[in-house]
Amino acid sequence: MISKILKKLSIGLFVATILLPLACNSPQSSVVEWWLTNTHDGSALFEKQTAISLGKYTEGDLPVIEIDSSHHYQTIDGFGFSLTGGSAQHLIRMSTDVRTALLRELFATDANNIGISYLRVSIGASDLNAYPFSYNDLPDGETDPGMEKFDLGPDREDVIPILKEILSINPNLLIMGSPWSPPKWMKTNHDTRGGSLKPEYYPAYAKYFVKYIQQMQAEGIRIDAITVQNEPLHPGNNPSLLMLAEEMGEFVKNHLGPAFEQASIATKIIVYDHNCDRPDYPISILDDPETRKYVSGSAFHLYGGTIDALSTVHEKHPDKELHFTEQWMGAPGDLSKDMPNHIKQLTIGATRNWSRTVLEWNLANGPDHKPHTDRGGCDRCLGGITIDGDRITRNPAYYVVAHSAKFVRPGSVRIASNELAGLPNVAFHTPAGKTVLIVLNESDSTQIFRVRNNEQQFTSTLQRGAVATFIL
């Protein structure tokens, strides 16, 4: 009797220790959801496709994108746009119900909407406002070093109410502020365009930033980060400011950083905010230990240089953040060219080079590309959407952002994937435990390929120029 019991126990132990682990480790039947944009002919515009079966990996002849979730890189803060004063102006003039529906489409995080997670706003006017202004404009000859007359002014008419409406839809949205120019009474040329910041007004300008963050907070709008100056090496815009690296470093080290510290402001300070052709600019600032202690990272545009400049900065200062904050598309827009370019260079390129954000320029404008300032304001910048009264047109940048923002939520982490000729791609692991893969077919013909994730795989086909986001 005892021998029979022991025999049964032995069989049971064999099942428990051998067969059950095999069952647990075997691939589970599953599918891959995916969204597609066919940029060549527009036959699919960010449209959900029939799910693809996910099976066990086997060797084959097709090219393979291999995802390796064991290699982690940077955390993602978000994808989105710049909400310019012009964008807000068009939005605020829409009928309430139409505007609310549009903002929900853009910012709500439920299954039916895009869920934009990051916005950049201008501190004062950008060149996509109707006219240049700061938050402390004074009659000629007057100054206000104590910032007693600081006021958010024109932004109370459109930017602030639109931000409040957006935050009511997505309260976790992150916001970055960037100035195009200080008040002109602080500048060497007393003009909104060009000139430099007078050293005697460095303390006043630091107070200007403090006041901005405090007054926005009083409106219920938290500023996650600021850049010290938009395009500091481009004084030809309106508004604009020339601020050399040594000047920005001095301002941050001895004025802005200490002012934030004294006022207990947690908003991140981001330096540079200009093209990829000058990685030496942020590196030189971060090389100074007394300055870098106040700096969270640096930001880039791609009107010059190559996107791997971000990795150049990362290699020198791997503990500092990188952000991609601006790239325009020119009117009238060309889906077949603009979208593949931005997906390759920004969505894929910037994140593969350590960027935590990818922001398009800009969210919205009118059919005439207005408003913009005179004497240098961009008159050909195409918004992610065009607003004509209550009529809405979704432009290429809309689809670029949709393919990432909807699925790569804040807190996602970039993971490794191999680079294949003709199939640039990038992969992420999300807080919900999903794997997201964004792929562009940049070749001149249809591509059939496989994707391997651990011991599972699926096969997909993309037309030339097509962009796909796969969710595993």
TrEMBL record:
<dbReference type="Pfam" id="PF17189">
    <property type="entry name" value="Glyco_hydro_30C"/>
</dbReference>
<dbReference type="GO" id="GO:0006680">
    <property type="term" value="P:glucosylceramide catabolic process"/>
</dbReference>
<keyword id="KW-0326">Glycosidase</keyword>
<comment type="similarity">
    <text>Belongs to the glycosyl hydrolase 30 family.</text>
</comment>
<dbReference type="InterPro" id="IPR033453">
    <property type="entry name" value="Glyco_hydro_30_TIM-barrel"/>
</dbReference>
<keyword id="KW-0732">Signal</keyword>
<keyword id="KW-0378">Hydrolase</keyword>
<feature type="domain" description="Glycosyl hydrolase family 30 TIM-barrel">
    <location>
        <begin position="76"/>
        <end position="408"/>
    </location>
</feature>
<dbReference type="InterPro" id="IPR017853">
    <property type="entry name" value="GH"/>
</dbReference>
<feature type="domain" description="Glycosyl hydrolase family 30 beta sandwich">
    <location>
        <begin position="411"/>
        <end position="470"/>
    </location>
</feature>
<dbReference type="InterPro" id="IPR033452">
    <property type="entry name" value="GH30_C"/>
</dbReference>
<dbReference type="InterPro" id="IPR013780">
    <property type="entry name" value="Glyco_hydro_b"/>
</dbReference>
<dbReference type="Pfam" id="PF02055">
    <property type="entry name" value="Glyco_hydro_30"/>
</dbReference>
<dbReference type="GO" id="GO:0004348">
    <property type="term" value="F:glucosylceramidase activity"/>
</dbReference>
<dbReference type="InterPro" id="IPR001139">
    <property type="entry name" value="Glyco_hydro_30"/>
</dbReference>
<protein>
    <submittedName>
        <fullName>Glucosylceramidase</fullName>
    </submittedName>
</protein>
<dbReference type="GO" id="GO:0016020">
    <property type="term" value="C:membrane"/>
</dbReference>
<feature type="signal peptide">
    <location>
        <begin position="1"/>
        <end position="23"/>
    </location>
</feature>
